[in-house]
Amino acid sequence: MLLLTGFSLGCLALIFVIVARDFWQYPVAKAFLAMLLSGSAFLLSPQIDPRYEWLAGDIMTMLPAFFWLVCQLAFTRRPRLLSIWGALAVYSFVAPAITRSFGANIESAGAAYIVGWQIPQYCEYLVILNGLWAIVAHWKDDLVESRRKFRAALLLTLGVTGLWVTISLNTGNGTSSTLLAVVALCSLTVGALLLKGREGVLFGVLQNNEVLPPVIVNSETKQQCELKQSVAKLDKVMDDEKFYRTEKLTLSMLAEEIGLPEYKTRALINQTFNYRNFNDYVNQLRIEEASERLISEPDTPIQNIALDVGYRTLSSFNRAFKEISDQTPTAFRQSKTSS
Q1: How many Cα atoms sit within 13 Å of 65 on the Cβ side?
Q2: Cα separation of 143 and 121, whole Å?
């Protein structure tokens, strides 16, 4: 057991040093480091002085919340941390920390035991599953295919392992040696993925975009002709025909419209316009048209403009407009018309 513990801690320490050295400035990297510390507390808990077992327990309990936070920061376009899921994540480790102060008499605390100990255990499962759902639900939003696959493999490995360990600890099933073996395997896999993956694909920095095959020769080749034709098709569909106005527009719908495979459409948008998220690309086009119409059509209701450019509701339009313009459509129109 000591051998497995030492091996796992060595892997986690190596990962921690690499991430802290190269990516400390990114929020997702800080959340990832916090998750590593929580996992280290689990490994060290059997060796810790009994006087500090409460501290190890509190740090261990934070693991599901940190995993959920990493998933939100790595995969969702606009992380909504102040949400019901964020509240459940905080509750899942704060309540047990308070309840643990009862010491050996936790189970005799009655309702406090249920509220502060049993319910948070179910919250741990829920926040881990929600983190895994964020990976699945937002996986295709990323326009860089290699980064999508890498992040999904990395976070699924962590999520499945975290769920397994959490369930085993909460239910009392599974031996210590089995859990340590699982954690050791996970640590080795995560370390291999981070070392093998291209720099920064999880933490927001990508050295090389996922692009169409590069052209080295000076003369115009077949690849260059195809690229020009693809760009022309995309411009025609999105700029001339205003295809971005389509409600619930997806990458597959756009790919079918311009007659390209989905992976080539994804790479084309990423290469030509430097977008790494399809929804950001579509929203930018919609908001640009809406901004022009807000100025040129001062008497047209904002809701009409929102529906015309492709939004189903005024609230979704307002949210997207403020994300891009840093002000509401009403404030934007008033500032432009008054000037």
Answers
A1: 24
A2: 36
Burial category of 168 from C-beta neighbours within 10 Å (exposed 0-12, middle 13-18, buried 19 and up): middle
Interatomic CA distance for residues 111 and 109, integer angstroms:
6
Whether the pLDDT of residue 77 is over 60: the answer is yes
Least Cα distance to 8 among 154, 191, 170, 196 occurs for 191
> Nearest 5°: CA angle at 246, between 245 and 250?
120
The SS3 call for residue 142 is strand
Give yes or no for a contact between 69 and 27, defined as CB atoms under 8 angstroms apart.
no
Q: For the segment 203-219, what is each residue's pLDDT rounded down to a tens digit?
A: 654 434 444 444 344 44
Burial of 269 (0-12, 13-18, 19+ CB in 10 A): buried
Residue with tokens 């929203």: 283
pLDDT of residue 219: 45
pTM above 0.85, yes or no: no
Look up tokens 């990976």; give the residue.
135
Answer whether 80's CB lies under 8 Å from 86's CB. yes
Closest CA to 92 of 62, 130, 72: 62
Is-contact 272 288, C-beta < 8 A? no
What's the DSSP call for residue 221? -
CA gap 152, 159 in Å, rounded: 10
**How far apart are alpha carbons 234 and 270 in whole angstroms?**
12
What is the spatial distance between Cα 170 and Cα 118, in angstroms, rounded to a whole number?
9
Alpha-carbon distance of 75 to 261, in angstroms, equals 23
Reported confidence tier of residue 18, pLDDT bands at 50, 70, 90? confident
Residues 155/74, Cβ–Cβ less than 8 Å:
yes
pLDDT 10s digits, 211-255: 444 434 444 566 667 777 788 888 888 888 888 899 888 888 888
Q: Residue 41 in contact with residue 52, Cβ under 8 Å?
A: no
User: Which H/E stretch holds residue 76?
Assistant: none
Q: Is 273 exposed, middle or buried (0-12, 13-18, 19+ CB in 10 A)?
A: middle
